[in-house]
Amino acid sequence: MFKPPRGFFRRLSAAAQGEPWVWLCAAGLIMSLVLVIGLFVLIASRALPAFWPQPVALLELRESGALAGRIVQKYEKQTDGVRETYFKVYVGNKAVHGKNFVHVNERELLRVSYPEDMLYIDSLDGGDIFGQPQSLTLQGGLRVPVDDPRFEDFFAQLVTDTAVRRIDILEVELGQLGELNRHLEQNARRLRVLAKNEIQNAAEIGEISAAQKKLQTRHEVYARKSKELHERQDHFTLGYRVASGQSLVMPMEKIDHYYYPNRLGFFEKADVFMQNIWRFLSEAPRQANMGGGVFPAIFGTLVMTVLMSAAVAPLGVLVAVYLHEYARPGLFSRLARAGIYNLAGVPSIVFGVIGLCFFVHLAGGTLDQLFFADALPTPTFGTGGILWASLTLALMTLPVVVVATEQALHAVPRSVREASMACGASQWQSLRRVVLPAAVPGMLTGLILAMARGAGEVAPLMLVGVVKLAPSLPVDAVAPFVHLERKFMHLGYHMYDLGAQSPDIDAALPLLFACILTLVLLVGALNFLAVWMRARMRKKYAVKPF
Fold this sequence. Notes:
- The protein is an alpha+beta fold.
- Among the domains are: 8-49; 295-540, MetI-like (MetI-like fold, Orthogonal Bundle).
- The protein is 58% helix and 14% strand.
- It has helices spanning 8-16, 19-47, 94-97, 151-194, 202-233, 266-282, 295-326, 331-343, 348-371, 386-411, 414-422, 427-455, 461-464, 491-500, 505-540; strands at 57-61, 66-79, 82-90, 101-105, 109-113, 119-123, 127-137, 143-145, 237-241, 247-251, 255-259, 285-286, 291-292.
- Strands 6, 7, 8, 9, 10 and 11 form a six-stranded antiparallel sheet that branches. A five-stranded antiparallel sheet has the order 4-3-2-1-5, with no helix packed on it.
- A hairpin with a 4-residue loop joins strand 12 and strand 13 (291-292).
- Helix 7 packs across helix 10.
């Protein structure tokens, strides 16, 4: 007679109650968390080392002289049946070497050393430079050699002074001169319009012409000031020697910052690490996006996401409220819901084409004809800008907000509505004062999903306003302060440019991972803020069915 093993019926009962499936779901959740955390750790492990100061080696070779740079990789390669060891060295000094990386066979090495006087320079237009300083040339031709005790103090002071003058130049050229240029252009456009009826508008033309002369005089004053600041920058130079023995000269105005990597202790390296991160987050890109920071891209991504959220949230809520609360069941409501659901599956590039045709050409062109005719043929709103990019992404993420809001409205107990109406409230009053507040947490869930998707999109933005380098931010201190017609930079497009358009992908790879990490943290911060707001709303407007 068959006798079941001990515990057989207990396990059979657990299986009948679905316990194995519960464990399977838990395993799936754990696996998902491990994958997400692992992906984040991978990105951070590739991004953060780019900011940590690495030692610079001096490699003396048997035949080709010497090289100075960071040894980034040691690998083996089989050549003619023989396995040989190679070093991948980041040499910088692209103007000297013509490339950023050199592969050195271990057999060619005579010696590897780390001189303490090896200098790292972040050049504003030449990338990373490694060399040994020789002398400073001050104003009047005074030369300070490297063995002079005052050399380090002079060097540090000159770098600080040139950085201050660089800021002064930017304030003059982008601030005063930029504002004057805008006023001159506005007056010039106004004069072109008034010139169509010169006799009737003679008095106004005279006033504007007089104002133009005053503006032009001020423009010449600031132009001279800018020229003087540039000339003062040209008086100071640094002489240095590269590993090959060649002596070069660099103007001090080209040096962004410097340090001696082989002299740094742990805490000094940590300080440089934090400074490098701050520069990356606060500076504008340079050298075809291969250097500098990503502040304009961060700012553009943040402003675009906020504008997109401000556009999609009320529109999505209105659509969902109508479909759920007011639309009668029938063909129209079924077709509307089917259209919204299908809209969620449309490729993002299609929304880019729709935004280009409808928003940019049709709406923007109409605005130019009505309000900016004096600026034509130069378009104002009839070209890509942050407004049209935000509206395009709002249209793309609309289905997410609509579906989430409908589900939130459906989750509000019917008894709550009935109790409100029983107290004498109308349907609109019940909706506005009871139902919508209770559904706000669910609405915010849709908004979180919309922000997460919209912030990382690239394809539609390439057609409606994003650019590789934007000279001005969409929000600044110049009236009217928010410039919705301006083109902007975006972290997603910046990553695409680094990964697909960079002339040296090996050199751009650490910066690419840094941009990915920045975008992930930015989206995470926006989502955290929305989740925090949702938790507060859920606690404040919690309702219980009667």
